[in-house]
Amino acid sequence: MKMTFGSFKENIITRKEFSLKTAQRILQKETISVLGYGVQGPGQSLNLRDNGFSVIVGQRKNSISWDKALKDGWIQGKNLFSLEEASERGSILMYLLSDAGQISFWPTLKKYLNDGNSLYFSHGFGLTFNKQTKILPPKNIDIFLVAPKGSGTSLRRLFQDGQGVNSSYAIYQDFSGQSLEKVLSLGIGIGSGYLFETTFKNEVYSDLVGERGTLMGAIQGIFAAQYQVLREHGHSPSESFNETVEELTQSLMPLVSENGMDWMYENCSTTAQRGALDWWKKFRDLNLPIFRKLYQEVSSGNEAKNVIEKNSHPDYRIQLQKELNQLKNSELWKIGELIRKLRPKK
User: Fold this and answer.
1) Could you tell me the domains of the chain?
2) What's the whole-model pTM score?
3) What is the distance between the alpha carbons of residues 312 and 249, in angstroms, rounded to a whole number?
4) Which site from 105, 124, 282, 297 is most exposed, i.e. has the minimal number of CB atoms within 10 Å?
């Protein structure tokens, strides 16, 4: 369907318009190779398998992700193979390694890209910043992406609950003339709630801004700042955490998800409404310069360069874990761990 927001029109594809049966028919002769079993690989491959598609998984042997695939029911030699063998066996290659992993494996993968194959991404990073990544695909294949707007864990959980994460889709190269029906079939197959059209460049720009902004970076910064101010003024760790994180995630965000920010406001006290209406524009005006700077850093390629440089160091996983541990061991998230244990059990 076409959705119009002011003068902007966009394509939205729902399950009613493009059914699972249609997707199964279109891809019935395809072997889908899911390369990588880290963040997105498990959810997408398991959902495709449960929806009746022919799916195999490729993963480095003797790794944590290989062991996870075995625990999830993939069978070595039947539908679980090395990255190389899965690349050779598949007609649709879903390239779901990390961005760093994609750069590393690309010289090998490109040897298996035969005439008429399809190359699938869930992130526009590798091709948008190909000067840095050196991911330069041949002209005789289809290239497209489906990018779920959520983690692979959420994709799987919502699928099992009969729901779905919304996803964007884009076509980079249409060699066969059938890329649109293939990409929509995969988007429905992995369990997307609905699909909206984008480009590889727009996907990665919005994704990198979102991750560094409201989805992860900015929200952690706001949490940390508010918690610190409350603690500096003598509020207990429990009170500070509940007023900063717990009430937001457990009570208010579900209301926003259900019916929008105005609905959440309407379901709070008039005192809360008045304060929020008086203060939200102050936060917007304060943050606009930061977000404009962030977008400029993303679109210039500086953020991609930084990611590639840091993630290419031999010890980058060790350094990454150190930074994650600093978050985990901060008072904010240590008290959060205790409070989550106090939630009533279902």
Assistant:
1) 2-198 (3.40.50.720), 213-341 (no CATH)
2) 0.91
3) 35
4) 282
